[in-house]
Amino acid sequence: MTIDSAANRSAGSPSGGPTAFGPEKPKADNVRAENPPLHHPLLVAVTLVLVALNLRPALSSLAPVMGDVVRDAGLTSGQAGLLTTSPVLCLGLFGVIAPRLAQRFGTERMIFIMLLVLGGGIALRGIGTFTALFAGATLAGAGIGIIGVLLPAVVKRDFPRKISLMMGVYTMALCAGAAAAAGATVPLERGLGQWTGALAFWAVPAVLAALAWLPLTRGRQSEAGPGGTSVRGLWRNGLAWQITLFMGLQSALAYIVLGWMAPMLRDRGFDPTTAGLIVSGSVMVQVAAALVAPMLATRTPSQSLTAVSMLGCSLVGMVGCLYAPLWTIALWAVILGIGQGGAFAVALTLIVLRSPDSRIASHLSGMSQSVGYTLASAGPFAVGLLHGWSGDWHASTLLFVIVGLVAGVFGFLAGRPRQVRV
Fold first, then answer.
1. What residues have CB less than 8 Å from 27, skipping those under 6 apart?
2. What's the pLDDT at 245?
3. pLDDT digits (tens, 9 = 90+) for 185-229
4. Could you tell me which residues are beta bridge partners of residue 2?
5. In whole angstroms, what is the distance from residue 272 CA to residue 266 CA?
6. CA nearest 349: which of 311, 302, 317?
7. Confidence of residue 37 (pLDDT cuts 50, 70, 90)
8. Which of 203, 219, 222 is nearest to 211 (CA)?
């Protein structure tokens, strides 16, 4: 495997990179149809957004009601930490097999099946026991992990001239789904009278997304495109590992916030509803940042500055939320949202930009998300351990800062204008 160190125009140069509107002008060899499109691009785009909206509620809906879950289900601190860690770990463990499953059964069919698995896992949480909660988290994590690996390859295959726009829209939908679940779960709990129903509710939009995606399963059986044949040497490639570690470390920061920000804010004196709304508001800011960041990043051949800047915002926002005066909390939540939404969007966009075709994009997506999310799962688990050991959030904040700084190093390296080639 070699790395093309020249500034690749399809990776964001003004004359050849993706733009937000109008036709883009990538090199001809980068925009050839790898598989003839079988469905109208608008249909694919709309259904892709519907799917993306369902890839975070299973993760963000638990934290706002965690106190009630721990009390009513009689959970230990270790079990509570396991519930926040296991779905993220499953994202990594199952994501690595996604390209092979897509090659065997077809990308569209696997996404449909995994949406049903995701819905089933979320519905299991309605039983309310630790066993059901853990099983549901495992199934949901498996579904999210496989779908999340396959969707960037779909963008690379079906939207080669609109990469920055589509990755922005895709990431925006991810953040919007997370925000909706973080903000609406406590009101749902109060309306339904129980947290079990509030958690299980998020199975409904997952099943609806599966029904919307179903028409796309017709036509392709299996494929050598996004599923791809084996890509040798990827796991020994330096650039691939830089992207992977950037993905994993910035994801660790994101899941620390999703899993523990609401309890942190409650310890600062906010009531559960307000804490959930602050987290939801921060995630809503991610929606706008996720849309804009890929477009900004692809205006120049290098995405290093954008990646580092977004991580800087994450660090400043997190520290502000935990230590600044309470009346300024909205400002720091906004800065945190800008940083986290932008960093995640840039990480996903780098997977696509650094891949010359959808076959490599699928395998690079599998590598970066499987290893990355496995690494990221240690973040919320470590925060739980540190909080239990220290009784406060100071050690957890230090961990957040250290992880953010290391992520910035790998974001700078991964953002350089190079491509992975086999």
1. 9, 10, 16
2. 95
3. 888 888 888 889 999 999 999 999 999 999 888 765 444 444 445
4. 421
5. 6
6. 302
7. low
8. 203
For residue 230, name the pLDDT band (cuts at 50, 70, 90): low
Q: Does the model's pTM come out above 0.70?
A: yes
How far is 57 from 65, CA to CA, in rounded Å? 13
Angle at 178 between CA 175 and CA 180, to 5 degrees: 110
- Tens of pLDDT, residues 376-401: 878 887 887 888 788 888 898 999 99
Residues 6+ apart with CB under 8 A from 119: 203, 204, 206, 207, 210
Between the alpha carbon of residue 142 and those of residues 118, 202, 230, 366, the distances in Å are 8, 16, 22, 13
Write a three-state SS string for the chain.
CEEECCCCHHHCCCCCCCCCCCCCCCCHHHCCCCCCCCCCHHHHHHHHHHHHCCCCHHHHCCHHHHHHHHHHHCCCHHHHHHHHHHHHHHHHHHHCCHHHHHHHHCHHHHHHHHHHHHHHHHHHHHHCCHHHHHHHHHHHHHHHHHHHHHHHHHHHHHCCCCHHHHHHHHHHHHHHHHHHHHHHHHHHHHHHCCHHHHHHCCHHHHHHHHHHHHHHHCCCCCCCCCCCCCCCCHHHCHHHHHHHHHHHHHHHHHHHHHHHHHHHHHHCCCCHHHHHHHHHHHHHHHHHHHHHHHHHHCCCCCCHHHHHHHHHHHHHHHHHHHHCCHHHHHHHHHHHHHHHHHHHHHHHHHHHHCCCCHHHHHHHHHHHHHHHHHHHHHHHHHHHHHHHHHCCCHHHHHHHHHHHHHHHHHHHHHCCCCEEEC
State how far the Cα of 212 lies from the Cα of 229, in Å rounded to an integer. 29
Q: Which of 179-183, 265-269, 292-296 shows the lowest mean pLDDT across its residues?
A: 179-183
CA 348 to CA 241: how far, in whole Å? 14
On average, the pLDDT of the chain sits at 82
- What are 89-132's pLDDT values in tens digits? 888 788 888 888 888 888 889 999 999 999 999 999 889 888 89
Buried residues in 79-113 as b, exposed as e (16+ CB within 10 A): ebbbbbbbbbbbbbbbbbbbbbbbbebbbbbbbbb
Q: Which tokens sit at 140?
A: 């949901």
